Structure formats: C-alpha cells, structure tokens
UniProtKB/TrEMBL annotation:
It comes from Algoriphagus namhaensis. Belongs to the MurCDEF family. MurE subfamily. This is UDP-N-acetylmuramoyl-L-alanyl-D-glutamate--2,6-diaminopimelate ligase. It catalyses: UDP-N-acetyl-alpha-D-muramoyl-L-alanyl-D-glutamate + meso-2,6-diaminopimelate + ATP = UDP-N-acetyl-alpha-D-muramoyl-L-alanyl-gamma-D-glutamyl-meso-2,6-diaminopimelate + ADP + phosphate + H(+). Pathway: Cell wall biogenesis; peptidoglycan biosynthesis. The modification N6-carboxylysine is found at K221. It holds the Pfam family Mur_ligase_M. Keywords: ATP-binding, Cell cycle, Cell division, Cell shape, Cell wall biogenesis/degradation, Cytoplasm, Ligase, Magnesium, Nucleotide-binding, Peptidoglycan synthesis. It is found in: Cytoplasm. Carboxylation is probably crucial for Mg(2+) binding and, consequently, for the gamma-phosphate positioning of ATP.
Length: 487
C-alpha cells in the first residue's frame, strides 16, 4: 500500500478534498481497469475525456481521484486531488510509485522522425555485448537484458514506462535505451523520468495528423531537451537544420555529431555498398555491417552516446562493428540471384533515404522494383509524396496497402496515385492486396534485380478494421522468391 501524499511528491497541486494520507495499491488511468482502493487519474485524451469516467472509476472501487477539474458532486468517502496537468501528474506519480527507478538506471531517450529504433537497438546490443545488463524500450520490442516483452507503442504509457524500468532495475540493469516519440512527449508519458541523456536524430514530415503543424511537431521534440536536468547530456545531429533549435533552451550539456560540418563527434563515409559501410570515426577506420549513409548517422550517434556515458572509444567501435542492426531495417534476403530488401521506411524522408541508398550502391543494369503503401488513419499528406519518390527512384513501383486500419484501402491508394505524374504511370502498378503486390514484384524480377518492400519492416501483421491479420513482408517475399526461382 502507498500513501497518497508521498506519491504526489513533486506534482503541481491546485487543491485537495479529503484524506491526503489515504492508502492505495495501484494507479490506473482507465476506468475500465479501476479496482478496489486504486487511485484513478483522469486524463484528457484525443477521443474522450477521462474526467467523464470518474463516476465509473468510483463505482469500481477507486477511493482517490486525481483530476484537473473537480466533479460537481463530491462524495465524502473519496479523496479528490486537483492538479495542474493530469497527464504530467500521472507520470510523476508513476515514478514515485515505483520508487524512481530512473535515479538508479541511466536512461537515455532518443527522439527524431527516423532512426530512433535503430539507434536504441544498437545501443542495447552494444552495451549487452560490452558486458552490461541493459534495458530497451522500442517500437519493435521491449527488453530486460535478453528477455523480450512485446511492445505496443514506440514509447509505452507513463505507468508502463516506470513499471518496466523498475523491473529493469530489479534485474540488475545499469542502462535503459528508449525511444521518445513526439506523441509520448506531448502526452507526458515520460514525465517523472530523470534522464541521463537525450539524443536528437532528425526531423522531417510525419504525424501532422496529430501535431497539426510542423512547428508544433518541432516543439514536441524540443520539449524533451527543454525538460532535461542540468547533469544530463543532450546529443544532437548538427547536419539536421533543426539540430541547434532542439537545444536552444536546454540546461543539459550540449554535444553534437555530424558528417558534413564540424562537431564533437565526426565521421566520414569511406565506402557504402550492399555489404556494409566503411567509416572514419575520430581518425579510426572501421567497417560496419549496416548499409546506407543514414546508418552512418545512427552509428555516429551511438558512438557519441557511448562515449558520453564514459565508455572506451576503441572498445565501442570494435564491438559496434560486429553488430547486425535492428530487425526490419534494411533487411536483405537473397534468393536465386534476386535481392529483396525489407525496410520500415514509412515516411517520405525515410523512403527517400532508402531509395537513394539502393541507387548509390547499385552496380547498374539491374532493375529496382519498389512495393510500398501508406497507413490508414495516419498523416494523409505523406501519401502522394511517398508514391512520387517510389516512382521517381525505381524502375517500377507497385503501390499497395499498409495497415489500412479504418480507411478504405482503395481511397488510400487514390491519395498515393495523385503524386504520380502522367509520364510515370507506365511504370506504376496499383495492387490493393499486399501479398499479390509482393508476388507480382517477384514475378517481374530476374537475376540481379532488387526488390524493395517498404513501410512495414518488422511488423508481422496487416491491421484492417481493428483486427491484426498475420502478415510478414520477409516471410511472403521469401515464399515467392523460392517458388519462382526453383521452378
Ligand atoms: C493518439 C494517441 O496517441 N493516443 C494514445 C492516447 O489515447 P487517447 O488520448 O486517444 O485516449 P482516449 O481514448 O481519448 O481516452 C482518454 C482517457 O480516458 C480514459 N478512458 C477512456 C475510456 C473509458 O471507458 N474510460 C477511461 O478512463 C483513457 O484511459 C484515457 O486515459 O493514450 C493512450 C494511453 O497512453 C494510448 O494507448 C493511445 O495510443 C493509441 C493507441 C495510438 O495508436 N497511438 C499512436 C499514434 C502512438 O502513440 N504512436 C507513437 C509513435 C508514433 C511514431 O513515432 O511512429 C508511440 O509512441 O507509439
Ligand atoms: N538516421 C536516419 N535518417 C533517416 N532515415 C533513417 C535513419 N535511420 C533509419 N532510417 C530509415 O527510417 C526507417 C525507420 O527507422 P527506425 O525504425 O530506426 O526509425 P524510428 O524513428 O524508430 O521510427 P518510428 O517513429 O516509426 O518508431 C528505417 O527503416 C530506414 O528506412
Ligand atoms: N508508429 C508508426 C508506424 C507506422 C508504420 C506503418 N506501417 C503504418 O502502419 O502506417 C505509426 O503508428 O504511425
Ligand atoms: Mg521506432
């Protein structure tokens, strides 16, 4: 049992009614999970307002209500705590409830439009390989050392963040590498965390459905750095034109990395092929198994982070050199002389990078066939742009579905097709069924050709009308390439 006033430590309060020494055994922010003697935090959401569910939570046994607006009817047996910001209060309460695990585990948060999963995965793999026990919170999976805990979000909700960190601490983890999505920052899912450092990779077009304007999206990412404590580090990519803005108001120690300009951590690409990257980092030449210039940025930010955490530079580079990278990020499958690449590029910038990378490392003569779709109920403005890029940088493009969710798949494809100019229609196919689209790409390809399947990476489902149907790009392309090349 926890005592309310202890758990409210550092929460900005407006007023309270009732017993501040009240005891409770769990915090919930969803009335459907309320139980006897829980504390219910009413959070305003995008769909509904948690304040409308206060009665329901009390019916299910909640004895403590934390909210921004007090209800009209006050029940004498209930304690009400009015706070400035419920979402923020939830994060701070969760941290106190689990005894502030981030004071003992060094937590590094990575934000940016692209590269978060890759960066945190590399950091986790690196620290594990160097003998540390470390944790991971990522889009693909959460990990406590080697134990996998399935991930539902890029950044879990505030309670899950803290309870996972507590488990990491109990399991002996010294570090945790986590993604901080812009949604999570705005929704205060990381409030209450005491970060040891934060990393900014880049910012480009995404999630304008949620943030509305690019300025708001930049502000969301900047908030991570604004909220850092003085003893933390802020590591930013200076080649991104928003790198400096991110750390304008931070109290943390600013450190920079770049390929194109002078910075604290600097790298140069010596060679970039389908086999890997050769980089010069701090005067040392090292070979890496990851492909593409964008991965040079990810490797460099991992190197910078590890150095700022006090690790030996030589050991870091040697260990990183053997690491394969994150699942679904430029995964190469070679069957019968055909190369398929499965990649999670689901934004115009990521797709542009991946297509340019393939074009940079092509030897010439082969065809590049790209299969790509755009998610339903997500930023619509990226649809024509992604189709335009796929067509412009490939010999053939097959536009298809990617998690249509509650939208009509053909309507998403119509939005995509608007980005294809009349002269490019010849090399564009539209196939709603993703399996058929991949099969067609395999049928159109011959020895030496490259098939890029973009958008889903590690995802093993296709989400249609609230139901996730098993679907795995790598599995499907392997099946057809085997079938077609064996006959
Ligand atoms: C748009 C968005 O981010 N939504 C997240 C948000 O939900 P919401 O604001 O819509 O919540 P709501 O349904 O309006 O409910 C408001 C409050 O009322 C409560 N409630 C609701 C109903 C009820 O009966 N009783 C009750 O108490 C809810 O528990 C909630 O506290 O808060 C929830 C709890 O933390 C999240 O699960 C949910 O993620 C949804 C499922 C989602 O799809 N989010 C995506 C967009 C997301 O967060 N993506 C980023 C990564 C993006 C990227 O970079 O690629 C991520 O970090 O995963
Ligand atoms: N540093 C980078 N710059 C630009 N593009 C990148 C970078 N790193 C990876 N990418 C591309 O972006 C895709 C997504 O990468 P990753 O999963 O690491 O990003 P993310 O930020 O975690 O994405 P999400 O917001 O969906 O969690 C990759 O599949 C690759 O195509
Ligand atoms: N975390 C991102 C992933 C998008 C991946 C893509 N496959 C899609 O479904 O749009 C989101 O939920 O917007
Ligand atoms: Mg991610």
């Amino acid at each position: 049992m926890k005592v309310l006033k202890d758990i409210l430590y550092k929460v900005s309060l407006v007023s309270s009614i009732g017993d501040m020494d009240a005891r409770f055994k769990e915090i919930v922010f969803d009335s459907r999970q309320a139980s006897a003697s829980c504390a219910f935090v009413a959070v305003r959401g995008t769909q509904v307002d948690g304040h409308d569910y206060i009665d329901k939570a009390i019916e299910s046994g909640a004895k403590i209500i934390v909210c921004e607006d007090l209800p009209a009817e006050i029940i004498p047996s209930i304690t009400y705590v009015q706070v400035v910001n419920s979402a923020r209060a939830l994060g701070i309460m969760a941290a106190n409830f689990y005894d502030n695990p981030s004071r003992k585990v060094k937590v590094i948060a990575v934000t940016g439009t692209n590269g978060k999963t890759t960066t945190v995965t590399l950091l986790h793999q690196l620290f594990q390989a160097m003998g540390y026990t470390s944790g991971l919170l990522s889009t693909v999976e959460n990990k406590i050392s080697d134990e996998v805990i399935p991930s539902t979000h890029t950044t879990p909700d505030a309670l899950s963040v803290q309870s996972l960190l507590r488990k990491m601490l109990d399991a002996g983890c010294t570090h945790c590498f986590m993604e901080a999505s812009s949604h999570a920052i705005v929704q205060e899912r990381i409030a209450g965390l005491e970060l040891a450092g934060a990393v900014f990779s880049n910012i480009s077009h995404d999630h304008l459905d949620y943030h509305k304007t690019f300025d708001e999206y930049i502000k969301a990412k900047k908030k991570l750095f604004d909220d850092l404590p003085k003893d933390a580090f802020a590591l930013v990519n200076l080649d991104d034109k928003r790198g400096k803005v991110m750390v304008q108001n931070t109290k943390a120690t600013v450190q920079t990395y770049a390929l194109k300009t002078s910075a604290d951590f600097k790298a140069k690409i010596l060679s970039n092929t389908l086999e890997g990257l050769e980089l010069e980092i701090n005067g040392k030449l090292i070979w890496f198994r990851m492909i593409g210039a964008f991965n040079a940025y990810n490797i460099l930010s991992v190197f910078g982070t590890a150095s700022l955490l006090g690790e030996d530079e030589e050991e870091v580079l040697q260990t990183l050199s053997a690491i394969p990278g994150a699942r679904g990020r430029f995964d190469r499958i070679s069957i019968g002389g055909i190369t398929a690449i499965v990649d999670y590029a689901h934004t115009p910038d990521a797709l542009d990078n991946v297509l340019k990378t393939i074009n940079d490392v092509r030897t010439g003569g082969e065809q590049l066939i790209t299969v790509v779709g755009c998610g339903g109920n997500r930023d619509k403005t990226k649809r024509p742009e992604m189709a335009r890029l796929a067509v412009a940088f490939s010999d053939k493009a097959i536009l298809t579905s990617d998690n249509p969710r509650f939208e009509e798949p053909q309507a998403i494809l119509d939005d995509m097709q608007a980005g294809v100019g009349p002269s490019d229609l010849r090399k564009t196919l539209t196939i709603v069924d993703r399996r058929e689209a991949i099969k067609t790409a395999c049928m159109l390809s011959g020895r030496g050709d490259i098939i890029l399947i973009a958008g889903k990476g590690h995802e093993d489902y296709q989400e249609i009308k609230g139901v996730k149907h098993h679907f795995d790009d790598a599995e499907v392309v392997t099946e057809y390439l085997k079938q077609l090349t064996q006959n």
